[in-house]
Design a protein that fits this description.
The chain has 167 residues and is of the alpha+beta class. Helix content is 23%, strand content 40%. The protein has five helices and eight strands; from the N terminus they run ββββαββββαααα. The chain has an eight-stranded antiparallel β-sheet, sandwiched between helices.
Length: 167
């Protein structure tokens, strides 16, 4: 069974130290994709801008700076409010977004109840799939001789015309 944990919230896109604009966003967590969080930013375009990154990164970023490369997350205070900052980089550009810590934390808590940390692989069934794949199989005896099985699948170059070689 797949569970979806969603939260709509308004983020702030930081344009400069003095200026930001609101950006509606949807946080989504899917138990059938247990290692990832998905964020859809609803900007003034036909389709939302979607980002996917590790749930663990966002969980840690609520408490301390983490991440490198395309996604960095860290907590801070802005005008006395606790916020989480997310720096996102892509070939199309960079964005610095501010999210209210209380709302992000409450949503993350719901995802952690749905799939506790350390149990993500169980959701995917990786261990069961590997066990099935690697399980020894009992050989089965053929019930009747199979003519194709008994023939040489790779005729030699030394075969006589019409004796299993290619003409």
């Amino acid at each position: 069974m797949n569970t979806v944990v969603e939260r709509e919230l308004e983020l702030q896109l930081i344009l400069s130290p003095e200026r930001s604009i609101p950006v509606p966003a949807r946080l989504t967590y899917l138990t059938n994709d247990p290692f990832a969080v998905h964020i859809a930013f609803h900007i003034s375009s036909e389709n939302p801008v979607n980002w996917t990154f590790a749930r663990e990164l966002l969980v840690e970023g609520v408490f301390r700076p983490c991440g490198h490369g395309d996604v960095r997350v860290w907590p801070t205070k802005v005008e006395g409010r606790s916020v989480v900052l997310m720096a996102l980089s892509s070939p199309d550009g960079d964005a610095l977004l501010e999210a209210p810590t209380a709302q992000v934390s409450a949503w993350l808590e719901r995802t952690l109840r749905a799939v506790p940390p350390g149990s993500e692989a169980e959701q995917l069934g990786i261990d069961d799939g590997l066990a099935e794949l690697l399980a020894p199989t009992a050989p089965t005896a053929p019930t009747a001789p199979d003519e194709l099985w008994l023939r040489d699948p790779w005729p030699s170059d030394e075969s006589q015309d019409g004796e299993g070689g290619y003409v």
